[in-house]
Specification:
heterodimer; A: six-stranded mixed beta sheet; B: 114 residues; mainly beta; seven-stranded mixed beta sheet; four-stranded antiparallel beta sheet; 53% strand
Chain lengths: 112, 114
C-alpha cells in the first residue's frame, strides 16, 4: 500500500532554534517528493521538490534531504521564525501518476 | 509562480441548500484540476479529478451526485455541494498542474453548514 508517514505529529520550538521533520514513504514506483507549508486556513504552498537523483535541496532557511534507497526524507528548518508556525506536509507522487499521496503533516509551533 | 484562486474563501449556508465553489488557474491553462477536502488536523483527501470537457473522476466513497464538478474551461473548475448537511462542513481545496508539472494549490474554501 502506498503510504506517507510523517513524524513528529507536532512540535513546539523556541524562536531561533533549528528543527528537523521526518517523512518515510512506501510509494512505489517513486517519481518525486514535495514538502509543502500550510498555514491555518490556507492552501498548501510548495517549499521544495525532489526527484530520485536529488539528495538535497534548499529554499532559504528550508533544506530538504532525500534518501531514495531507504525511502526517507527530512525537512530542516534553520533559525526558526514565528511565521514558520504551520503544518508541514510531505507529498510523494507515484511514477506515471498525477495523483500524489499526502502525509498527515507535522504541526510546528514556534514560540517567542 | 503560477497562481490558483478559489472563490469564495468562506461560506456559511443552511442545511439543504447548495453551494458552488470556483477554482481558477490565473496564469496558465489546466486541463486537469483536483478537488480535496480537509478536516481539522487531517491530511488532504482527494475527492475527484476534474477534466476539462469531460466527466470528473471521483474517488471511492465520494458521491458524484452530491459533489457536482464542472470543468467548463481550461481555467475554471467548479465544485457544487448539493443539499449540504452539517457533516459536509470542511475545508475544500483545489489544485492544478501547470505546464511545467508543478502542482499549485488554491487558498481553500471554508464551508460551514448550519
Amino acid at each position: 500500500k502506498n503510504q506517507v508517514e510523517q513524524s513528529p505529529q507536532s512540535l513546539i520550538i523556541l524562536e531561533g532554534k533549528n528543527c528537523t521533520l521526518q517523512c518515510n514513504y512506501t510509494v512505489s514506483p517513486f517519481s518525486n517528493l514535495r514538502w509543502y507549508k500550510q498555514d491555518t486556513g490556507r492552501g498548501p504552498v510548495s517549499l521544495t521538490i525532489m526527484t530520485f537523483s536529488e539528495n538535497t535541496k534548499s529554499n532559504g532557511r528550508y533544506t530538504a534531504t532525500l534518501d531514495a534507497d531507504t525511502k526517507q526524507s527530512s525537512l530542516h528548518i534553520t533559525a526558526s521564525q514565528l511565521s514558520d508556525s504551520a503544518s508541514y506536509i510531505c507529498v510523494v507522487t507515484r511514477g506515471g501518476s498525477y495523483i500524489p499521496t499526502f502525509g498527515r503533516g507535522t504541526s510546528l509551533i514556534v514560540h517567542p | 509562480g503560477a497562481v490558483v484562486s478559489q472563490h469564495p474563501s468562506w461560506v456559511i449556508c443552511k442545511s439543504g441548500t447548495s453551494v458552488k465553489i470556483e477554482c481558477r488557474s490565473l496564469d496558465f491553462q489546466a486541463t486537469t484540476m483536483f478537488w480535496y477536502r480537509q478536516f481539522p488536523k487531517q491530511s488532504l483527501m482527494l475527492m475527484a479529478t476534474s477534466n476539462e470537457g469531460s466527466k470528473a473522476t471521483y474517488e471511492q466513497g465520494v458521491e458524484k451526485d452530491k459533489f457536482l464538478i464542472n470543468h467548463a474551461s481550461l481555467t475554471l473548475s467548479t465544485l457544487t455541494v448539493t443539499s449540504a448537511h452539517p457533516e459536509d462542513s470542511s475545508f475544500y481545496i483545489c489544485s492544478a498542474w501547470d505546464p511545467y508539472n508543478e502542482q499549485f494549490f488554491g487558498p481553500g474554501t471554508r464551508l460551514t453548514v448550519l
